[in-house]
Amino acid sequence: MKTSQKSLDRLISRAREASVETQYADESFRAPPGFVTRVVAQARLPRREGSQPWWQMLGVAVAWRC
Amino acid sequence: MSPDFQPFDFKSGLALVRPGDQDRVRDLVEVLYPLVIKIVRGCLPRWVGEEDLAQEVFLKMFTRLDQYRGDVPFPHWISRIAVTTCIDHLRKQQRRPELRYADLSEDEAQMLDVVTADESGEEAGEALAARELLSKLMDRLKPDDRMVIQLLDLEQRSIGEVAEMRGWNSTLVKVRAFRARRKLQKLLEQLEAEERV
User: Fold this and answer.
1) Closest residue of A to B18, CA-based?
2) Contacts of A42-47 spanning 24+ positions with Cβ under 8 A
3) Model ipTM?
4) Could you report the per-residue pLDDT of B52-69, keeping only the tens digit for each?
5) Which residues in chain B have their CB less than 8 angstroms from residue A23's CB?
């Protein structure tokens, strides 16, 4: 195995330890305050307008905003 | 890709989300947030703007909900959306300046010594320094290659999982991984050579 390959394997192995710590932290991670409200508010915007499903209306709204 | 989604019954939940049940929309976002944010964090070079990107993922999810046919588990479906969104985001950035030895922090330079000399340092913060150094190297990769390293090598997902998340076949995942690792090896060699000068 090339030296650089061994070096990379060692680097990835050590970096993975930090990633694992992050993953464990995420296990109990919840959406920050206001996040869900923001998303739901976005989703609520185009609701109840005509016969078009609200999620399709949302697509129109997002496209318009961009 | 199997977090505990027991509190949310996707089948019946989605049936309520589609007509616009706001409480179920809220539940859906809450239950999927850890999965989405994990993918977003893994993808971003720095944890900057992760909430904006996560929000973009959810907005895409809602706008495409009518396209979900139920042929794969819902978390797999949104994982693919998250991965694609992240890669699109990285492509837009398209900024991969050359990485020089002088750009490394003291800890990262020390980590370079450790991994190239096979030293066995056990100092606190070593994993973080390794993560930062690897992240700088990965910044130099194409977005798809970066994602493959992130998912396969750091998160240790299977080739099948990555193939599903990216919409590729497994051969393409292996080829991408091989090329990405070779590129990373070359970058390490370059840094090591600069260090010796």
Assistant:
1) A55
2) A42/B55, A42/B59, A42/B62, A43/B22, A43/B25, A43/B59, A43/B62, A44/B22, A47/B20
3) 0.70
4) 888 889 888 888 887 888
5) 38, 155
